[in-house]
Amino acid sequence: MARRSRSAAFISAWNEFMFSYGLINDDARRTLTPGIMIFASDRLEGADRGFRARGRAAIAYLQRFLGRGLAAGVVKG
């Protein structure tokens, strides 16, 4: 019974979030939940770019080892 009420509470909160995020465009009328999400996403955008650049560099470096490993696994003997 408790599981049903938790899932109903989650669905209700999700519906409230999607309604206020999708239909309310005025910042003065927006509820707290999407306001926090928008604020956090604006603040973290620069950090996200830095992490993506590091990830791409790591993948580019490790790609040659991955190719060698896959080629070595294909050849028998």
- Rg, rounded, reads 23 Å
Taking pLDDT < 50 over at least 5 consecutive residues as the criterion, the unreliable ranges are none
Rough shape?
elongated
Assembly state: single chain
The chain-level mean pLDDT equals 78
Class derived from helix and strand content: mainly alpha
Percentage of helical residues? over 70%
Short summary:
The chain is mainly alpha-helical and 77 residues long. The protein has helices at residues 2-23, 32-74. The protein has one domain.
Offer a few descriptive terms:
2 helices; elongated; 77 residues
Explain the overall architecture.
The chain has 77 residues and is mainly alpha-helical. The protein has one domain. Helix content is 84%, strand content 0%. The longest helix has 43 residues, at 32-74. The chain is elongated. The mean pLDDT is 78.
Tell me the layout of helices and strands:
Layout: H1 2-23, H2 32-74
